[in-house]
Every structure is written in C-alpha cells, then in structure tokens.
Amino acid sequence: MKKWIILGVLTLALSILAGCGGTKYEAVPIDEAVDVCAICKMQVKDDAYATQLTTKDGKTYKFDDLGCMNEWKQKNGTDNIGMDYVRDYNDKEWIELSKASFVYDASIRTPMAYGIVSFKDKKSAEAFIAEQGVGQLMSASDLKAHGWEQNKQGMEGMEHSHDAEGGMEGHDAEGGTEGHGASSGAAETEQHAGM
User: Fold this and answer.
1) Could you tell me the pLDDT band of residue 155, with boundaries at 50, 70 and 90?
2) Reduced to 3 states, what is the DSSP secondary structure of residue 115?
3) Are 22 and 56 in contact (CB under 8 A)?
4) Is 163 helix (H, G, I), strand (E, B) or coil?
5) How far is CA 86 from the centre of its chain?
6) What is the sign of the dihedral through the CA atoms of 109, 50, 137 and 159?
7) What's the pLDDT at 23?
8) Where are the compositionally biased (Basic and acidic residues) regions (predicted)?
9) How far apart are CA 39 and CA 143, in angstroms?
10) What is the Cα–Cα distance from 55 to 87, expressed in whole angstroms?
11) Fewest CB atoms within 10 Å of the CB: 13, 39, 66, 95?
C-alpha cells in the first residue's frame, strides 16, 4: 500500500513540475498586408528591421524598427514581456533579443532612423562593421544604456511618403494583436533600404 501512495505522490509531483515548465513564446510571421507598428503605425515590412514581442498574456506587438520596440517598452514596462525578438540582418531569421548582437551608427538606414541592426552572433556583427567601415558593436545589455535618438536627417522625406499613402483602419488603440493574429489596416511605406 505504501508503494502505491509513494508512486501516486511522485506521479503528481512530476505532473506539477511538467506544468511549471513555463510558456514557450515563439516569433510569428510578418504579414505586410495587415501588420503595422504598434508605435509609429507604419507598415511592418517582412525585412531585417522587423521586431516583435509577446506579452505573458499572449498579445503580440510588431514593430518596423528596433527603436519603436524600445519606445513601447519605455511606455509599457518590461515586466509583462514573455519574449522579444529581432531579426538577423543577413538572413532575416528571428533571434531572441537577449541573444543577439547589434551594430549602431547614426548613418545606418533603418525604417525609423534609429540606426541599429541586429545579428545572430558577434562574428556577423563584426563582419558588417568591417564591410561598412562604420558601426559600434553592442550587446542586448548595451541597448539599455543607449541614447535612442533618431537621425532626423535620415527621417527627412519619410513622413511625407508615409502620410501620402493613407492611414489606418480597424486596429486596436495599442496596435497589438490578440494571440498570434495580425493587426488590421495597412500603411504603405517606402522600400526600407540598408546602407
């Protein structure tokens, strides 16, 4: 009889531990037809600059520039973030932000002119710096102390081209999506170009 009780307790304990493994958050695809940045409301292109985060309650927010995701975090805090993702500049693979390497230079063209691109490893980031002849290597922890200024010269002409294409319809005020769906509405943007 004791063996059955011990076996039952062990089975219950293993079931509880398996349930405590935590929620697994995964990056979701970008749908250019409907996805808009939760901050600037511009179209999120399926490119190397796209970022996203999922809150612990399952709401996914997508951004067209790492700087926009940073602004969202400043406004909303980070306690409720389940996972945040950036894309590798070279192959567009999703990477957990905490594991990525970054290159910053004000002259690097990004959608909202924050000048930061991400890479899956330090070696790739260093190769980019060597190839471009500019850039400061940064880690995810370095981003917390970064100034996050936009290159205003890089922004010239972008506002006009965004405004001329039309606005948004039917998305929630926060720009998020429930679960892993997509925000409604689209705003065309000019083709995002790298350096």
Assistant:
1) low
2) coil
3) no
4) helix
5) 5
6) positive
7) 77
8) 157-174
9) 18
10) 18
11) 13
CA dist., res. 42 & res. 85, Å (int) = 18
Residue 17 vs residue 22, higher pLDDT? 22
- Phi and psi (nearest 5°) for 45? -80, 150
**Number of helical H runs and strand E runs in the chain:** 6, 7
d(CA 80, CA 58): 10
- 125-140 pLDDT, tens digit per residue, is 999 999 999 999 999 9
CA angle 150, 145, 98 (to 5 degrees): 100
Positive or negative, the CA dihedral 126, 101, 94, 169 is: negative
- Alpha-carbon dihedral 55, 78, 109, 25, rounded to 10 degrees: -30
- Predicted pLDDT at 150: 92
> Which token pair is 51?
């970022």
Q: Which residue has the tokens 């927010």?
A: 61
Relative to beta strand 116-119, strand 94-96 is unpaired
User: What length does the chain have?
Assistant: 195
